Amino acid sequence: MSMRVLVVEDETKIAEVLNDYLVSAGYEVSCLVCGDMVLPHLKQDPPDMILLDLMIPGMNGLDVCRAVRRISSVPIIMITARVEEIDRLLGLELGADDYICKPFSPREVVARVNAVLRRSLAPVCKTTLRVAELVIIEESRRALAGGTELRLTPCEYNLLRVFLGSPDRIFSRNELISAVQGYDFDGYDRTIDSHVKNLRKKIAKRLPDKEIISTIYGMGYRLNSGPD
Predict the structure, then answer these.
(1) Fewer beta carbons within 10 angstroms: which end of the chain, N or C?
(2) Under CATH, which architecture does the 128-223 domain have?
(3) What confidence tens digit (pLDDT) does each residue in 58-77 have?
């Protein structure tokens, strides 16, 4: 069965190009032109991936992303013509998995969709990873902190999995990018920072007053296995 991609884009020519390339790559594609249409569509016919333009009529892309994340962990790739980095980072902090800036290569979009879906749909194994009060149950792709389930995006889940696989190891940003996303491109350092920030926030809600993930200045990030 084909994977389903929902394209939310009000520029007809861009939506048509994305549709053509994604269909050629084997995906089933639905297109929406207004942000207000996304949640009803998501509830009625859940896609496997959302390509979401930020500048759309009705509910804007950032508000759509925020609303989707309240009910779903479906992978989201933002599409934006905005040049300000703060807009991209805000979308990532709201739970988007990746972003594409206009103008873009349709082939690159397909490659990004492939990579994000490949990571989110990796073969399930029966491994349980545990470090202190953090647990990942890979068979069900569940993450727990202090016995309470964490609701993580695919990127956040994969990031935690990497950390739990090698506690106390310092990971550079490039290592995390490669492990979590499966590809690299200029400017992604700040993106991985956003994913780490989101993961920290979710863990902190369950395990307050504990520094679980440390920033090692000039080197990267480390998951702490022992006492603070």
Answers:
(1) N
(2) Orthogonal Bundle (1.10)
(3) 999 999 999 998 888 899 99
